[in-house]
Amino acid sequence: MIVENIDTLKKHLAQGARLKYKLKNANVYVSRAGYHFTDYLDPVKEIRPEIDGSQLTDQEAVYIETQLQANSQKFSHQVDILKKYLSLKNARVLDIGCGGGLFLSLIKREGASVAGIELSDSRAQYAATKHGLEIHKQPIESDFWQKGYENYFDALTLWDVIEHVNYPVQTLQGAVNVLKPGGLLLIDTPCRDSFYHQVGEVTYRLSGGRFPTFLNAMYSSHLFGHKQIFSTQEMKDIFSSSGLEIVELHKFHELSFPYEFYLKKLLRSEALVKYSLPAVRAFFWLFKIRNKMLVIGRKKQILSR
């Protein structure tokens, strides 16, 4: 079995990966062990920790409310998942990549002591002002968290986040460091061994790269876009190497955005989106394709000698 570290591969691209997919918005590389990732990195070091509230325009607020947080059932389900393993009363919870803050606001009502990390100025400002949340524009790997909050939190969540970060192993290790021994780490993320990615691979290969279908919607080389899509086995390996014992892992069906969002990426035609939308809604009502995975890990207890 080939043992690889995806962070190292991304730092030294030419040494351990080959270009496999040339997509509309991304080049996707594949390592010998099978990791899939783009060659784009966010300029995180250039991001200032102060929140620029002027970036929250009316248009941005509408996007957060009607697109980013449109699926209210998703956020309620996330709360239920956390409550399955943790009593929220006075629990310390950090949400990495908290977006508009809806999840944190829901668990705050349940009695949790919450904080969020959000690197987007507009979303950070929205979460802080709309929901009155404590929001920080400091990556989990920064000294702010690593030196000030070691072994502090009862739970950390990364909902639809790990696919966006530059170095996922570093992010997970930073998250584990601020968890109490026995604390929980919860992640959901698109799954590469799922229907969408596999169909995209087939259509890309059969069309000689001209028709990647779902792959165009799964990878993106723009700020905070999808940089890597993991398989379930890869997530197991990364959790284990980061000092986490997996307590739950399963695939499930969920779309983070309305159907129109994905159809526009696939079809690139407003007319085609309009005419295909009813059929798409009917299809997903009948067939709940498991496109994502939920992974929950518990930080291993420190054994006394």
Describe this structure in words.
The protein is an alpha/beta fold and 305 residues long. The chain folds into two domains: 7-39 and 192-229, no CATH class; 43-190 and 248-257 and 291-299, Vaccinia Virus protein VP39 (Rossmann fold, 3-Layer(aba) Sandwich). It contains 13 helices and eleven strands. It has a seven-stranded mixed β-sheet, sandwiched between helices. It has a four-stranded antiparallel β-sheet with strand order 1-2-3-9. A hairpin with a 4-residue loop joins strand 1 and strand 2. Helix 4 (72-85) crosses helix 5 (102-109) and helix 12 (259-267) crosses helix 13.
Summarize the structure.
With 305 residues, the protein is of the alpha/beta class. It is built from 13 helices and eleven strands.
What structural keywords apply?
2 domains, 13 helices, Rossmann fold, 11 strands, 4-stranded antiparallel sheet, 7-stranded mixed sheet, alpha/beta, 305 residues
What does the secondary structure layout of this molecule look like, with pairings?
Blueprint: H1 6-11, H2 13-16, E1 17-22, E2 27-31, E3 36-38, H3 58-68, H4 72-85, E4 92-96, H5 102-109, E5 113-117, H6 121-131, E6 135-136, H7 143-146, E7 153-159, H8 168-178, E8 179-190, H9 195-206, H10 215-218, E9 228-229, H11 232-241, E10 244-252, H12 259-267, H13 270-286, E11 292-299
Parallel strand pairs: 4-5, 4-7, 5-6, 7-8
Antiparallel strand pairs: 1-2, 2-3, 3-9, 8-11, 10-11
Helix pairs in contact: 4-5, 12-13
